[in-house]
Amino acid sequence: MRKPDTALELRHIMLCGVSGCGKSYRIRQWIDAVPVVIAWDPDEDYQIARARTFRELGALWRAGERRVALTVDPTPTAFGYWAAWVRSSAQNEKLHAVVVAEEIAQVTAPGKAPPAWGWLQRQGRKYGLGVVSATQRAAESDKTAFTQARWIWIGQCGERDTAYLEREIGEPIPGRARPVIWDQVRAGWVSGNARISPDPLQRVST
Fold first, then answer.
1. Is residue 30 pLDDT above 70, yes or no?
2. Residue 108, Cβ neighbours under 10 Å: how many?
3. What pLDDT score was predicted for residue 183?
4. Nearest 5°: CA angle at 119, between 96 and 89?
């Protein structure tokens, strides 16, 4: 089993906002040139090699494909299997990857994260993973994705989700302009156009 590297930077990003506010567009920009991408992609937002079963996902990976998306019925059970597969890959291979999970409110809850998904959030950094979580409903999503993210990207949100985000951040979301980004390491706001990246091989400062 691969040994963890505690020197790797935290690159996790959580994106919150209603449909059409630019979450997937921004993620596509981030992953465009990343050599290894593993995506939970129920709505087929990403133009990369696609599997529609776990068997197809494994076959693509064994064939050497390293930019892969899984599109299956978005159930918590299927999401848990996918996260466990990503965890196993990270633990057993020399892997530096961006892991993308779309619409996590469909498959997680505000309480404790599913075990493998929680591992990706809490331990994935040490195994070369940058985890990107996207949700339309921040208040209904796994809180671990929020607490473990380096950056919180915020687009247009409903009142309940805005209130949730402001409560968790501890500050009002500034102005009406969106998006904005909260840097949890520096505890401050940065521009929505700031050069941030989930790529664990990049060193991007804001």
1. yes
2. 26
3. 95
4. 40
pLDDT tens digits along 77-126: 999 999 999 999 999 988 899 999 999 999 999 988 899 999 999 999 99
Within 13 A of 37's CA, how many CA atoms are on the CB side?
26
d(C-alpha 145, C-alpha 186), whole Å: 18
**Helices in 124-173 by DSSP H: which ranges?**
143-147, 159-169
Give the tokens for residue 157: 């949100």
What DSSP designation does 134 have?
Answer: E
165 phi, psi to nearest 5 deg:
-65, -40
Residue written as tokens 């961006």? 98
Query: Cis (ω within 30 of 0) for the bond into 174?
Result: no
